[in-house]
Request: fold
Amino acid sequence: MIRFRRLLAGLLLFLGAGAAGAQGVLLDQGEIDAALLHGPWPPPRTGDPSNRVSGIPEAIELGRILFSSPALSSGGRLSCASCHDPDNGFTDGLETARSHVGRLDRNTQGLFNLAGMRWFGWDGRSDSLWAQSLLPIIRSDEMALDVGQIADALQDGPLRERYEGLFGPADSQAPDRNLANVGKALAAYIETITTGKTPFDRFRDALEAGDLEAAAAYPEDAQRGFRIFAGKGKCTFCHVGPLFSNSEFHDAGVPYFVEPTRVDTGRHGGIEALLGSRFTLRGAFSDDPAKTGAWKVERLVRSHDDFGTFRTPSLRELTRTAPYMHNGSLATLRDVVNHYSTIDLERMHTDGEAILEPLDLSERETADLVAFLESLSTR
Amino acid sequence: MRKRVCLAVCLAMAVPACAQADCPVPEGWLALQPVGASDAVVAVQLPSTPLPVGELFDIEVSVCDPQDGNLPLARADAMMPAHRHGMNYRPEIAGHGPNLHTVKGFMFHMPGAWQISIELGAVERQRFVLGVTAE
Reply:
């Protein structure tokens, strides 16, 4: 029987009937088209016009040094790398981040492939990578540096010369300007934290090239997982495109109570913070005369549905960034799949989007979807 | 009266580009369906079909009303009927020419069925809709 099917598939292929049913490729034409939408990868590199040092090697180097320098924190206690450990997927492996004040409310995001995102932070409080990168320096529960001291901090050893070379003497600039410049150097570095082709990307490329032999190297469990992902799982409503994220905000049924009496307002609070920020793409610190990205903050539509929603995360490199969700409440990818499989609609906002519903996946389907998610990582 | 009949026939036949004789729909444009009675014909030109997901795009809107040649374009928007939500960004109407408008800055953040909605009129609004797909 199997041999007969393979024979038939070969014949179909021979007749140029497309990849459907071909040996080792389980997807039908519609599913192949859906797979193609998640590439090509990597995306073309484009600089950030709002950051004039984006892509400049000296800025990338300064950003790299700043990233692991405790000089930018009050009392020299923390650096970015304390939470975003480069050897640990640029995160800390904890449910939620820790600092001198104890446990924070949210999971430390990994910093892979951020150049293509529209919003930053779980709640999208920043509209640019540089604005997001300067926030932890001044936040009282993170690095807690008094912004007035930033010029002094920049006198530190290797920082001074490099900063001056790019931006001029720190002590001749207003503290906010120092801060924006530091954010831009950090962003220039973070933009370089990109990841290469995954098993899924090679599968997708082979499908695009019509090379079914190469495509067949992609494991069948991951292929079945993709069929659930793009099919009855409806995952591709939000996890779209090459990044597997629409960079917008949704309620994925994760509880947003931080304590019995306190909630994480998610996007709602993110918008408040954004609108109160002086570091946005429409503001004076953007280096783009055309203010290219300013439409995001200027045309934002606010809605009561923003409450308790979080940015759809990218699904690349998940094997390195456990635990998952904005509160780190799910330890493994299997836990995430089980969450979607048994999602509690009672927990969703009353007028939710009516996309997610319990999938009731079998043991094998669960394993398949996990295998697919794992295939979105380079290791 | 003849116009009404013509429109009714158009709707019954569900021909998208069907329009009244005095308001022909340009080739390659899509006529919207009026919500309620209207003599006006609203048509749009889309940058692509299907429309993109996660990218800004602009649409051209033509308005033709045999009764009132100057019906203003009051509002342009889009929503996903199945998911009961609209767009996360407000598009901007940039008129050019009396009955031709460019609406800038549509952004569909999800794939699937969307409905573009155009409202005409300064005081009393007439609404027109068109189902489109984003991929």
Notes: The radius of gyration of chain B is 14 Å.
